[in-house]
Amino acid sequence: MLLLAVPSGGVPIGYSIARELNIAFEIVVVRKIQIPWNTEVGFGAVTWEGDVVLNDQLVASLRLPSEVVRQCINQTREVVLARLRKFRGNRPFPNLKDQTVIVVDDGLASGFTMLAAVRSIRRKAPKRIAVAVPTASMTALELLADEVEGLICPNIRGGQVFAVADAYLEWHDLSDDEVMDYLSKGLDRSGAKRWARLMKPPSSHRGA
Questions:
Q1: How big is the chain by its Cα radius of gyration, in Å?
Q2: What are the CA-CA distances from residue 184 to residues 12, 27, 49, 117, 181 (Å)?
Q3: Which of 142, 71, 57 is nearest to 108 (CA)?
Q4: Is the bond leading into 8 cis (omega within 30 degrees of zero)?
Q5: d(CA 113, CA 46)
Q6: Residue 63 and residue 74: Cα distance in Å, rounded?
Q7: Cα angle: 17, vertex 22, 23; to 5 degrees
Q8: Architecture of the structural domain at 2-196
Q9: CA separation (Å) from 113 to 42, 53, 178?
Q10: What is the bridge-based pairing of β-strands 100-104 and 128-132?
Q11: What is the spatial distance between Cα 67 and Cα 126, in angstroms, rounded to a whole number?
Q12: For 31-57, how does the pLDDT look when each residue is reduced to its tens digit (9 = 90+)?
């Protein structure tokens, strides 16, 4: 069993879960594609392998020109590559084949960043994938429901506007140094069969 945390916000949460469950702790670098005039909102995401998942409905509603979309994707790829170099260095990506993988972030707004991560992870042939987040919008959970075997979220919120930070009493954006500190303390252990009961059996077929 392995936990993959999405930096930056997912790292302290992933570290705490991994420590509690006594399992291996790693990161998976995924980043939302930011809207040029509102960097708090994304219209898709780019993964560490260069995969792109777009929120086509949002792109259409914003009337973003294709050239702007391409430019934003390329800028996001550069950020992802820089984070890979900083946070992973030359460390190889872990082998996920036949493993149960828990993917953690600090919350899900649209869900597209996590969706991109899950689809890239699925290609690594894990046995099961579970997503665990402290808070999420209902629409994000619905987006992910058919993509994973487990979905754990204790704080689910509705409404037209959702901000992950609104679910926290204290909130700040982690610096790269803080992320590196958590990674340096990361666990490399196995166990925690308690998660097995939270996940449905793996399906023999998964949609694209």
A1: 16
A2: 12, 12, 23, 23, 5
A3: 142
A4: yes
A5: 8
A6: 19
A7: 80
A8: 3-Layer(aba) Sandwich (3.40)
A9: 9, 8, 21
A10: parallel
A11: 36
A12: 999 998 887 889 999 999 999 999 999
How is residue 23 written in tokens?
């399992």
Percentage helix, strand, coil for the chain under 3-state DSSP, each rounded to 5: 40, 25, 40
Residue located via tokens 């999420």: 136
The pair of three-digit structure tokens given for residue 150, joined into one six-digit string: 């487990």
Q: How far is CA 57 from CA 64, 114, 131, 174, 208, in A?
A: 11, 17, 24, 30, 18
DSSP strands (E only) in 48-140? 52-54, 100-104, 128-132, 135-137
pTM, entire model: 0.86
Residue 154: other Cβ atoms inside 10 A? 10
Per-domain boundaries in the chain:
2-196
Convert the pLDDT of each residue in 119-156 to its tens digit.
Answer: 999 999 999 999 999 999 999 999 999 999 999 999 99
